Amino acid sequence: MNWTKDMQALDRAHHLHPFTDFKALGEEGSRIVTHADGIYIFDSEGHRILDGMAGLWCVNLGYGRQALVDAATRQLQQLPYYNNFFKTTHVPAVTLADTLCRLAPASVNHVFFTGSGSEANDTVLRMVRRYWALEGQPDKQWIIARENAYHGSTVAGMSLGGMAPMHAQGGPLVPGITHIAQPYWFGEGRDQSPEDFGRACAAALEERILELGEENVAAFIAEPVQGAGGAIIPPDSYWPAVKEILARYDILLVVDEVICGFGRLGEWFGSQHYGLEPDLMPIAKGMSSGYLPIGGVMVGDRVADTLIDTGGEFFHGFTYSGHPACAAVALKNLEIMQAAGVVQRVRDDVGPYLAQRWSALADHPLVGEARSLGLIGALELVADKATGARFDKSLGVGNLCRDISFANGLVMRSVGDSMIISPPLTMTRDQIDELVSLARQALDETARHLNVAIHKEQTA
Ligand SMILES: *Cc1c(COP(=O)(O)O)cnc(C)c1O
């Protein structure tokens, strides 16, 4: 019997995968990833694949880090579990909290631990409303988020998120959340200059605040660069204008750092790249390089002071808030990043190098735009380079390119017809060359397939 086929059969029989058409996957069979090293994953058929997504935007230090394994092992031996409820604490949680606050923007000095980014955003929702209630403004309840944002998969996470297909499943959303336009210039703004479009998207925030009444608006939540929505880098005019509007109406800023945090944009946090002073920052993913699950909400002084001084007990927490082994791994992860200057390297060396190599893909006939910032990037696939017209959705060009890329040895993800990368932050220049050349191969092969498909359509 074939081991891979056996495993696939068991997978099909019992395993419901996240964000997956269960039936379609069952028919195709899943790829079984067996081990990984550095920036490469390996599957059960012996393929070596460059992981251009760092797992799910999280394996920032790459695979095979013995120091992270050792940190987990030591902690599991000494104290595998204890909670932080009921007036107890433990060294990994305390030390991690201290380290995180040293790295965060100056006005952010507290952290509430969770097990994931989704739990972090659930915590955000409760903290924001609790804050305004304690401030004597209980009507400040509305949270303004953005279309096509991703803030997780729990009920609060997906309600804050702006993913229409998610909203369409699973019943009523959390009330009091509203969505405005995203600053996605290539997708939605090409009739204007990027700068004008960025300002228009910020103006949409002000309009919504005025519609709802500023006395009813609690917070605005956004990713610095949208990740799952398609590696969407806002025009430079966007964040300064948003900042100004939030200050004018006294509305809290929640910066979802789950992807942009921990070096992705070349600063410890995306907030620092854009000069933001967040009131709350959900974090997760790169925090532990994905070796163990951990997340949290970093809380700015304004909110923390009120919660601490006047809040009394906050009835909220998770069994695994600040789990000792996860915290120990996160701490070691941050120590390694600091010692190796990973973040500065993204900002000063590999980020600019990727920008130079990646943007060269814009000359490809399928590519309407090639953008990147730090180590996150996207390619916009188009049917007509001159007009930027998209392919017919039914062709599924993004998924086609993703499948080809995977088969050729590179994980790129597709979001519609955008191809996304978010590789480990430890990439060398040579590895970036390899990634870009694999991406070009995938584009070439996709173009060959499409010529055939388009030709068939025309002759049919
Ligand atoms: C992944 C993600 C989340 C959710 O994190 P999970 O750990 O999957 O729950 C939230 N916000 C952003 C920006 C994310 O990318």
Structure description:
The strands form four sheets. This protein has a four-stranded parallel sheet, sandwiched between helices. The radius of gyration is 22 Å and the shape is globular. It has 17 helices and 14 strands. It has helices at 3-14, 22-28, 54-57, 66-78, 91-103, 117-134, 155-160, 164-167, 185-188, 194-212, 238-249, 270-273, 301-310, 324-340, 342-359, 397-408, 429-459, and strands spanning 33-37, 40-43, 48-50, 108-114, 142-146, 177-180, 217-222, 252-255, 280-283, 295-300, 367-373, 376-381, 413-415, 418-421. It is an alpha+beta fold and 460 residues long. The chain has two domains: 31-64 and 342-459, Alpha-Beta Complex (Aspartate Aminotransferase, domain 1); 67-340, Type I PLP-dependent aspartate aminotransferase-like (Major domain) (Aspartate Aminotransferase, domain 2, 3-Layer(aba) Sandwich). The protein starts with a helix and ends with a helix. Helices cover 44% and strands 15% of the residues. Helix 10 runs parallel beside helix 11. Bound molecules: pyridoxal-5'-phosphate (PLP).
